[in-house]
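Course assignment 3, question 2. Fill in each field.
Student: A.L.
Task: Predict the tertiary structure for the chain below.
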Amino acid sequence: MKTTIFEEKESNVRSYCRKFPVVFEKAKGSKMYDQDGNEYLDFFCGAGSINYGHNNPFIKEKVVEYLLNDGIVHSMDMYTVSKGNFIEYFQEKVLKPRGLDYKIMFTGPTGTNANEAALKLARKVTGRSNVWALMGAFHGMTLGTLALTTEAAARKGAGMPLGCVTHIPAPGLFPGLDTIAYMEHLINDDHSGVEKPAAIMLEAIQAEGGVNIMPFEWMQQVREFCTKHDILLILDEIQTANCRTGKFFSFEWSGIKPDIVTVAKSIGGMGMPFALTLLRPDLDIFSPGEHNGTFRGFQLATVAGRAGLEFMLENHIEDEVVRKSKLVEEFLKTELPKVSDKLTYRGLGLMWGIDFSAYPSGTAKKASQECFKRGLVIELAGSDDCVLKPMPALITSDEDLMRGFKIIIEAIKALNL
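Answer field:
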């Protein structure tokens, strides 16, 4: 198949295909294959949607068996055995062992659906319209979530003003600024000009923002701040949940309990579209149908989602990610300084960022292109796309994991920085 069919007939809005201009045909585990049989190591992972690997055999078997037995695929939000099985397993095996008591709202197929539901609920519960988010945030591309997202290119697509949001400097963005004291000032000073918010929505790790890790102590202080001022704390776990950081939820590292949590991407097990909004039981005040969507609770996703959770627990994925994280950190600590003393890195679990901000604009993009030439699919993040973002599948073997990072080093060397 030639790429001309896409270039001529698909919308100009397409993006990833421009960065990886081959026609892919198959994928298995941590690898993808184009129509000519060329192999690519996947360090993009569907932006975190394929945590357990492409076509995971355990998950795929469950889905195929369900289809062969004529399991119901679409049922709006009616009761089904498959959805009941997912709810029961998620509650008993994931939430309860972590001391989390949440009701589950099936919102629709994408992360932005989950975030929109969370925002609407917070505003309905509190009666307030303003929401606070962090500079560097990415929460979605629909109008409500786009108002929280700070990426200029994304915001320009709205075609209208984006309001009812106040952006707070992320911790560390301005050295010496106490962001907690700053928020206290906004709340307490009647001349701050900023309305008390219904909620604060944040990511424990800003993924698209450049793999910026929120300090654990700061997260605890935000939790205290929200409780003190009767503000709901919403954690966007769409890209970071499902063990990406070495714990099922990334907020677990700080020991806090959010009021609302949004989950998508790999909660669908093997790339199935699936998104959830988890909420404290006392916040469950929507009237029937007040927020809905045709594909909320897509049944194949509930089957794949439960299978993904089973696979995760049975294969001790959390522990494995922590172990592999140490391999990655040691490699970067040893090898990155050999190619440049201006590159920095940061990360947690199997989400990492290599920061090229000390170099001219476009340098990280060139590194990504060099990686692709060598058979590695890898994306960018951060301001001006200055961060190279290795994010392999959690089941990637040690051998392939290290091979991928060696390709990154080779690609950077090719730039002659």
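Instructor remarks: Residues 272 and 301 are 5 Å apart (CA to CA). The chain has a mean pLDDT of 97.
Grade: pending
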